[in-house]
Amino acid sequence: MAPTALICDTEPWKDLKEHVNQINKTHLRDLMNDVERCQSMMVEYDGMVLDYSRQRARLDTMDKLFKLAEAAHLRQKIDRMYSGEHINSTENRSVLHIALRAPRDKAIYSDGKNVVPDVWHVLDKINDFSERVRSGSWVGATGKALKDVVAVGIGGSFLGPLFVHTALQTDPEAADSAKGRQLRFLANVDPVDVARNISGLNPETTLVVVVSKTFTTDETMLNARTMREWISSALGPQAVAKHMVAVSTNLTLVEKFGIDPANTFAFWDWVGGRYSVCSAVGVLPLSLQYGFPIVEKFLNGASNIDEHFYSTPFDKNLPVILGLLSVWNVSFLGYPARAILPYSQALEKFAPHIQQVSMESNGKGVSIDGIPLPFETGEIDFGEPGTNGQHSFYQLIHQGRVIPCDFIGAIKSQQPVYLKGELVSNHDELMSNFFAQPDALAYGKSPEQLLHDNVPDHLIPHKTFSGNRPSLSLLLPSLNAYNIGQLLAIYEHRIAVEGFTWGINSFDQWGVELGKVLATQVRKQLHLSRTKGEPVQSFNFSTTSLLKKFLEVCFC
Ligand code: F6P
User: Fold this and answer.
1) What EC number(s) is this enzyme filed under (predicted)?
2) Distance between CA 486 and CA 302 in Å, rounded?
3) CB-based burial of residue 426 (10 Å sphere; 0-12 exposed, 13-18 middle, 19+ buried)?
4) Around 545, how many Cα atoms within 13 Å sit in the side-chain half-sphere?
C-alpha cells in the first residue's frame, strides 16, 4: 500500500483539536444532566452494558471521532486484518488471533491458506492430551498421575494465561473441574520465582509446559533448563519425555531442546505473543487445569466479540467506541494514562495483561510507514481491583492528576456471600463502590457544597474535589469463561482501533530488542569475570562501577 498521510494532518484531527476548546468549557456535572446524551452513550450488547456518559465528550464529539475513524480508514484496516493481509508490515505477517477462536466451519485465510483447520487440529490435540493427563491415562515416569502443571514462559507467553487462570479459579464450574489440580506459572528468571514455583511440588506428579513462541527467549530457556534438571535429577533423564511438553512456533528448537515433537503444540507466526492466549499458549495449560470444554467457552466468548467487532456499525461497536475514546483522551485531552479498575478480585491479573497488550502494541514513535510522529501514541496502563485500589492510588485520581478510568464490574458474583444481619451482601458492598466512584470523579465536590455542609474554611481547599474526571463503566452479566473471553477480545480490539487510528503498527515490538542485546553483552562479561577473572571492560563508568560492585560478592 502507498504510504498514508499522518492522521494529524487530516481535517477531522484538526477539527477535534479545535473542539477541545468547546469541551474545556463544559463540566461533567452539566453534561450528566443531558439525559438524551447519557442515553445515547449507553450501549448494550449480549447482556453487557457500556456506559461512557462520564467521558468528557458530547454527542458531536462522537460524530467527530467517527469522522476521524473514517479518515484513518478504520473500516478498511479492520477488513485487511480479518482477510489475513500482512498488516504487520515490519515483520511481513498477517495478524490473525481471531482465527484462534473461530468456529470450526469458518474460513480465514493467511497467504492463500485457510488456517482454521490447522487451529482446530491443535485444539483437538490439546483436548485429547489434556483429557489423558487429567484422567490419569497419561502418567509420569513412575506411573503416577500428573496433577500439577508448571507453565514456563514470559511476556505474552505468561500474562494472558495467568489472567485467564486467575479469573477462572473462582468460577464455580471451572473450580469444580479443577479439583485436586494445580497450575503454576514460572516467568521470571529470578531464582526466587523458580524456588516459589517448585516449592511443595513433587517431580513425579508434575508436568512442565514450556511456552515460547520463538523458543529463544533467554529467561524462558534458562528456566526450562532448570526445570529439566529438576525433573531429570529426581527421576532420570528419560523422564523428561513424560514430564515436559512444549508450545511453540519453532518446532526445530523444541526438538533440539529434547522435547518429543509429538508432545509439542504448535502455533503460527501470524499470532503475536501478546495476542496468543487463545492459542496453545493459553489453551494447553488452561485445559490441563480446567478441561477443554471450559476453555472452549472462553474461546467462544472471544469469538463472539470478533464477530461483533467485524459486523457492528461503529456507533454501537464496543471496541470501536472504546478505542476512539482512548484516542480522544490521549491525543486531544492530553491524558497520558488509563486506570483499569475491575471491581472483581477474579480480574486481578487483567490490568497486568492489558499493560502488555496495550503498551507493547501502541507505544510507538513512528507511523506504520516509518515517519516520525509529531504526537504521542499509546497510554500508560495500570490498575488494581476495586476496592483495594481505592485505599491505594485513588487519592491521586480524585484530587491529583486526571486519569481516565475503566470501571469493570459484574452483575452476578462468582462467589455470592451474604452474612445474616449485614445491610448488603459482599458483592453489593463491592458494587456500591463500583457505582459510586465514577460519580465522585465526575461531579466532585465544590467549595459551595462544603460551605453548606459547615466545613471549616481552612479545610475547604483540602476537601474540594474539582470533578470533571472522565471514566467509563463496563457492566458484565457475570464472570464465567465465556464473559472472560469477551472481555479479553474487547480490549484486544480496542487496542487495535487505537493503533489503526494513530496510523502505527500495533503488532510489532522492536522496542524490546535493544535491552536484550545489551543484556547479552553483560551476561558475557559476567561469565568471563566469574570463570576467568577477566576485568570488567568496554562499559561506561556507571555500568562498570556497578558491575564491579556486583562481582565483589562470590557467586556460590
Ligand atoms: O518481551 C518481548 C517478547 O517478544 C514479547 O512480545 C513476547 O510475548 C515475549 O517476549 C516472550 O516471547 P516468546 O514467547 O518467544 O518466549
Assistant:
1) 5.3.1.9
2) 5
3) middle
4) 3
CA distances from 383 to 276, 386, 388, 472 (A): 22, 9, 10, 14
Query: To test ligand 1's pocket by mutation, which of 362, 509, 516 has the most ligand atoms within 8 angstroms of CB?
Result: 509
> Cα–chain-centroid distance for residue 130?
25
Q: How much is the CA Rg of the chain, to the nearest whole Å?
A: 25
DSSP-assigned letters across all residues of 485-544 = HHHHHHHHHHHHHHHHHHT--TT--GGGHHHHHHHHHHHHHHHHHHHH-PPP-SS-HHHH
| Ligand 1 centroid, distance to 92 Cα (angstroms) | 17
At 91, the amino acid letter reads E
Q: How far is CA 533 from the centre of its chain?
A: 43
Q: Are 246 and 210 in contact (CB under 8 A)?
A: yes
Ligand 1, from 93, 157, 353: best to mutate by most atoms within 8 Å of Cβ?
157
Q: CA-to-CA distance for 156 and 194, rounded, in angstroms?
A: 19
Share above pLDDT 90 across residues of the chain, in percent, rounded to a whole number:
96
Question: In the β-sheet with 471-476, what is the strand arrangement from edge to edge?
Answer: 42-45, 48-51, 471-476, 405-410, 337-342, 380-382
Could you tell me the end-to-end alpha-carbon distance of the chain, in angstroms, rounded to an integer?
A: 57
Give dist(CA 362, CA 237) in Å, integer.
Answer: 44
Establish whether this prediction's ipTM goes over 0.90. yes
Please report the pLDDT score of residue 416 as a whole number. 86
Residues 13 and 323: beta-carbon distance below 8 Å: no
Beta bridge partners of 207: 149
Cell of 409: 464490574
pLDDT digits (tens, 9 = 90+) for 173-211: 999 999 999 999 999 999 999 999 999 999 999 999 999
Strand ranges, E, within 26-175: 42-45, 48-51, 109-110, 113-114, 148-152
Q: Helix, strand or coil for residue 253?
A: helix
Q: Give yes or no: 516 in active site.
A: yes
Residue 1 clears pLDDT 70, i.e. is over it? no
